[in-house]
Structures are given as C-alpha cells and as structure tokens.
Amino acid sequence: MPRPRSFDLDEAIKGATALFWKNGYQGTSLADLTSEIGIAPASLYFAFDSKAGLFRQVLNYYYEAYLGRVDEKALSQSTAREVVETMLYGLVDLYTDKTHPPGCLSVKCSQAYAEEADVQDELMKLRHARRKRLASRFRTAREMGDLPANTDSEALALFAIVVGWGLAFAAQTGASRADLRRTVETSLRGWPT
After folding, report:
1. Confidence at residue 165, expressed as pLDDT on a 0 to 100 scale
2. Is the pLDDT at 132 greater than 80, yes or no?
3. Phi and psi for 74 in degrees, rounded to 5?
4. CB-count burial class (<10 Å; 0-12, 13-18, 19+) for 134
5. Using CA atoms, how far apart are residues 31 and 12, in angstroms rounded to an integer?
6. d(CA 162, CA 166)
C-alpha cells in the first residue's frame, strides 16, 4: 500500500511556479525544486513523473492564476481595440507586479534548450491557443463592422501577442510599469481604423 503524500500538491506547484518564473526552465534544477517544495527527488518523480511533468502542472497553474485572468478580462470587452488595450495593459500590470518575478513565466521558459522538446511543445500549445482565441475574437469584430473588412485577424492577433512578448522581455530586464504603459500607447497608434 503506497504511503500517503506528505506534501501539499497545490503548494508544491506554487513553489515550483516561483522558481521557474525566476530562473527559467533550464535555470531551475531538480535540487532547487526539491529544496523549494521540501521533498525528496523520488517523491517529486512519483507525484509529477519528471521535471517536465511538474512544469506542465506549473504552466496550467500559471495560466489559470495569472495569464488566463488577463485574457478572460480582455476577451470580454465590447470592441476589438478594448480587447487589445485591456490585454496589453493587464500584461503590463502582471509583468511588473512586485509580488512575483518580473516578466512572463512562459516567455522566460521559452528560452529553454532545443533538447527540451516536450517543454517547448507545451509552451507552443499555450501560445497557439492564446493567438487562436484572439484571432477568433477579431474575426467576429470584423464581421460586426468593428474592424475594417480587410483586417487580417490572424496578423492582428499575432501583433497583440508579439507586443505582449516584448513587454515581458522589457519587464524582465527592468523596464518600469510607466515605461511599459507608454510602449502600449505607442503600439496602439497603429491600430486599424
């Protein structure tokens, strides 16, 4: 009969999230994770199967607790421009929040080495899903006359995602919230009219 788990799975995922967010995927060792969570390597493997398995759980948590909240609020806005404004300003606030490391966990971990294909696949799925949701919202906006008829919804979605990535990198390297808000204002000057 297996022994009961001696640690809280949710707390372990939160602790691992902070480490991956701070150090990136490659910069977070198994020793770092077991020390943060307070478990033996065997227990980590039993609970999560591998470092990559734990990272998948971290990504799910990160999206639900952080990135998904920004997306949900943005996608509920009435116009396409409000969607992008809400998303980008929400990302600025998220990426510069002092209660966690600066920038974006998924962007930071996208810098993992090529041999970590399963990690890259998980990150690509997250990025693709976000872009797909935005493109769908922009197609609806175009059909309703909120965007010009010739608007490329896929390109506009990629524009918003790429600006978000840039905000993440800038925050990670020390850009202030005020700097990033000015960057958003500048980027929105190119919004289709």
Report:
1. 95
2. yes
3. -65, -50
4. buried
5. 14
6. 6
Average pLDDT, the chain: 91
Q: CA angle, 14 as apex, 11 and 15 as ends, to 5°?
A: 85
Sign of CA dihedral 127, 129, 133, 139: positive
Q: What is the pTM of this model?
A: 0.90
Q: Say whether pLDDT at 37 is over 80.
A: yes
Collapse the DSSP code of 128 into the 3-class scheme (helix H, G, I; strand E, B; otherwise coil) and give the result.
Answer: helix
DSSP H stretches of helix in the chain: 9-23, 30-37, 41-48, 51-62, 68-75, 80-95, 105-109, 117-143, 153-172, 177-187
| 160, amino acid identity | A
With a CB cutoff of 8 Å and minimum separation 6, the contacts of 185 are none
| Pairwise CA distance, residues 44 & 65, whole Å | 22
What pLDDT does 4 receive?
46
Handedness of CA 96, 14, 105, 188 (dihedral sign): negative
Is the sign of the CA dihedral 70, 75, 78, 83 positive or negative? positive
Q: What percent of the chain has pLDDT over 70?
A: 93
